[in-house]
């Protein structure tokens, strides 16, 4: 009887450990890397804001696949992001909407360690 309890405890412990490792690995995936291993950047922007040829050039030079979605109003963009179920690496709202998104906790801070060339921008 002791062997059965001991074996059950070991199996349960191993299962929980593997489950924990799986959760840890899911949360530590590289940003911008999808399950197929390709780099992908998802942008949500105003329609006709970026020339499609520029996006193609960016993809060719960087190797990133760009998923480019557009919106026609700040309010439509806000509603879609607020509802959730979508993931955008970059969204381009107008200035007043940024404050509204900040108040609704819809923005994440930039990770300056992952960004290069920040010295070229005015604070």
Describe this structure in words.
A 3-stranded parallel β-sheet has the order 2-1-3. α2 links the parallel β1 and β2. The chain folds into 2 domains: 30 residues; 70 residues, D-Maltodextrin-Binding Protein, domain 2. The protein is an alpha/beta fold and 123 residues long. The longest helix has 26 residues. About 7% of the residues have low confidence.
Number of strands: 3
Major sheet characteristics: 3 strands, parallel
The overall pLDDT, averaged over residues, is 80
Gap between N and C termini, in Å?
A: 69 Å
CATH architecture of the largest domain: 3-Layer(aba) Sandwich
* Low-confidence blocks of residues: 27-35
Would you tell me which CATH topology of the largest domain applies? D-Maltodextrin-Binding Protein, domain 2
Continuous helix count: 4
Helix content: 40-55%
How do the helices and strands follow one another from N- to C-terminus? HEHEHEH
- Can you identify the CATH class of the largest domain? Alpha Beta
Structural class: alpha/beta
Shape: elongated
Strand order of the largest sheet: 2-1-3
What integer value in Å does the Rg equal?
A: 21 Å
Superfamily (CATH H level) name of the largest domain: Periplasmic binding protein-like II
Q: How many domains?
A: 2
Pfam families: Lipoprotein_8 (PF02030)
InterPro entries: Sperm_putr-bd (IPR001188)
Subcellular location: Periplasm
Keywords: Lipoprotein, Periplasm, Signal, Transport
Quick synopsis:
This protein is α/β, with parallel strands linked by helices. It contains four helices and three strands. α2 (52-62) links the parallel β1 and β2.
